[in-house]
Design a protein that fits this description.
Elements (H helix, E strand, L loop, with lengths): L1 E3 L2 E3 L15 E10 L7 E11 L28 E7 L23 E9 L1
Antiparallel strand pairs: 1-2, 3-4, 4-6, 5-6
Amino acid sequence: MEAEHGKIQVKRTLRMLNKQFPCDMHILTLRTQPDIVYAQFPSNNALIVLHRQGYDCSVNKNFACSVSQIQENTNFVHADVKEWQPTTLTGTTAQKEVFSDLSNAVIGPMSLQTFNISFI
């Protein structure tokens, strides 16, 4: 928000990521994880659920997506991320692989993928 002569102006957009997602991928949810000791406080982790849509060529045959895969070094703009760890949809069971950014993540069409994000 920016204050100008007693008025508050709200920005219409907020850039969260440094790179553009593929046009068929969306952030479904982004939520903080509670602290292990003090559950009423947030931890340095968050869960993000990404949704990759499927295509229906009959909708628009001339549609062309300028970004078709997650670009290298894709990360948050205003937060330092230590790692992205794929996990189950509920975030209860983490997978072994860990990414420094999202470029190595493979999310198939019509799929959901949850990541536990650890912030520095």
